[in-house]
Amino acid sequence: MALNYRWDYVKFLFDSKHKTNIQNTEIFFFFPFYHIGGAERVHIDILKVFKEFNPICFITEKSKDHFKEEFENLATIIHLRKLSKKKFKAFFLKKIAKQINEKQNPIIFGCNSLLFYDLIPYLDKHVKIVDLIHAFSDNESWAAEIYSLPYVSRINKRVVLGAKTKNDFINLYQNKNINSDLNDNIVIINNKVSIPDSYDKQFNDNLVVLFVGRDSGEKRPGIFIEIARKMLEINKELKFKLIGDFSNFKKDNLLENVEFVDEIKEKEVLIQHYKNGDVIMITSRREGLPMVILEGMAYGMVPMSTNVGEIPSLINEQNNNGILIDNNQEDSKIVDDFVTELIALNSNKTKLSELSKNAYNSIKEVYSEEEYVRKYKELFFN
C-alpha cells in the first residue's frame, strides 16, 4: 500500500488507518528510491526477509515507479520526498521519531538516504539503528559515509558488502579520530543471488558481451562503446549489448556490433540475457559489488571488470574466475586492455569454459539465499 506523497507524512502522524499499520510493526526502513537499479534490487531482497513482520518503508526521494509494485507488496510505503526540502523538516522528524520511540523494540534500517541520518538525533536509546553502505563515494559531503559521521556512535550496526569497504571505514574512523571500538559494529553480509541448481552454460561461436547498468559518469558506458568500436576493426563477429536506459546516449553511438536494449524490469527476461551472453563487463571507475556481475556469474558468464570496489575480493587469480583490468590508467589504455583480453578469450574456448565454471562455483559457494536470510535476521534480532 502507498499513499500520495504530498500527504504521506501527515497521514503517518494523524490517520487512524495508518496508525494501525504502525501498531503492527516494529521495523522501519528508509530507502531513497524504487526505480531500476542494483541497490534497489538489494533493498527488495532485504524487505523480503522481513515481510512477515509487516514493515514500514519510507521512500525519501522522488523516484520512477519501476519497482514500486514490488516494494508495495513487501511493506507499507510512505513517501517523504517533500519532507527533505521543507523548512518544517525537524518538526516532522520529531513526530516520526515519537511514533518509533513508542515501540517496545523498534529497529530502523537505512541505505542511501540522508534523511535516515537526520532522524537519528531524535531517536531514543532503545531504538536499534542499522545502515547499509554499498560502497564509498568520492568523499563528497553528501556521501553517506561522510554525512553519517556525527551519528557513528549511535549506529548499532553497519552492513558492508566486503572487506574493502570495512577497511575503508576503519581508515576513515582513524583519520577522523573516531573510537576504534566502533570498528566492531561493522559487519559483512554478502548480497543474495538466485543461483541455478547446476552449471549448464552454452557459449556462442563468437563472444556476446553484456553491459547492464545506467548512463552515468561512474559506470562509464562510453568506455564500453569504445571497446566495441575498436573490435569492429578487429573482429566484427563479437557482439555487444547495452541493457538499460541509454536513450540520451544511443543516438551518437550507433554501431553495427552494438545492440541497445531498454531497461528490463522483469528478472526472468534479464536472466535470459545472462544465459544467452558470454561475458559480463564492468567498466566503472568505482563500485561496491554490482548485482549484475554476481547474477551474470551465477549463469556462467565470465566477468571482465575494472579492479574497483569489492570486485577484486571475488574475482582474482586465486579464484581463476574472471578477468580484471587495471583502473588506475588512462581511459584509452583501459579500452586497449579490455580489447586485448576479449580477443584472447574469444580464441581460447578452453579458458572461457574454465573461467565460466569457476565463476558459477564462486557464486554458489558464498551467495546462497539461506545464509543471507540467516545473517539479516541475526543482525536485526540478536
From TrEMBL:
The keyword Transferase is annotated on this UniProt entry: yes
Domain of life: Bacteria
Keyword Transferase tagged: yes
Keywords, comma-separated and alphabetical: Transferase
Domain Glycosyl transferase family, chain residue ranges per copy: 204-360
GO terms of molecular function: glycosyltransferase activity
SUPFAM superfamilies: UDP-Glycosyltransferase/glycogen phosphorylase (SSF53756)
One Pfam family this sequence matches: Glycos_transf_1
Name the record gives this protein: Glycosyltransferase involved in cell wall bisynthesis
